[in-house]
Request: fold
Amino acid sequence: MRVEDRVALVTGGAVGIGAATCLRLAEEGAAVAVTDVNIDGAEEVAGRIKEKGGRAFAMHQDVTDEGQWKTIVDEVVSRFGKLNILVNNAGIGIIADVEAETLEGWNRTIDVNLNAVFLGCREAIRAMKEAGSGSIVNISSIEGMIGWSIIPAYNASKGGVRILTKSVALHCCEKGYNIRVNSIHPGFIETAMVDNIGKQVTPELAAELTAKVGSMIPMGHMGEAVDIANGVLYLASDESKFMTGSELVIDGGHTAQ
Reply:
């Protein structure tokens, strides 16, 4: 029970890494607020937690909506009494190189992947100060550390999450808040987002990308969502009490090359 009696809010909690994170935190004792634009999926995840005797509820959330952030955080505190853990997980990935990308597409990716993380950090700090402690885990990507020519907007957004995390971590230290802020950088994980990227291109290019991804991972295979959820659990627990502003890379050795 590594996060027993703590309250977590996980965005994008309906599927993939978000769902695995909700379930893993609940298994270790946390009450979990599951938010997503996919409310049916979020309800299903919350239901699975409650079936196992845990505490959870689901809410619809568009993470780009500033007003919803305050409403969601206030609802979590109202239901569970506090907020100790925020996992900024919601994100999108759209294939378009720098010549093909539109300003609309660029802004949409930045809004969901970066601006929403800023909003989440700001609102979580407000609640965590009252709780007396907190851990914010921002899901970035190895694509926030290295580039890939077909996803410049995604690269920029995830790179922004990486450095924003460090800035917010330093702010919390300087203010004397007992709030830690870290980022996780997944490599290629078997999730719906990765599947969706493959669907955006021709079958031939999808096969080429799959082969390329496989060859880039020294461990020889993609990771599972629970691999990232376990990293979130570590950063949310006291086991990482001397970590803030840090990067946890979970990528099968991809960026070691």
Summary: Helices lie at 16-27, 39-51, 66-80, 103-131, 152-175, 192-199, 203-216, 225-236. The longest helix spans residues 103-131. The chain has a mean pLDDT of 94. The CA atoms of residues 16 and 192 lie 6 Å apart.
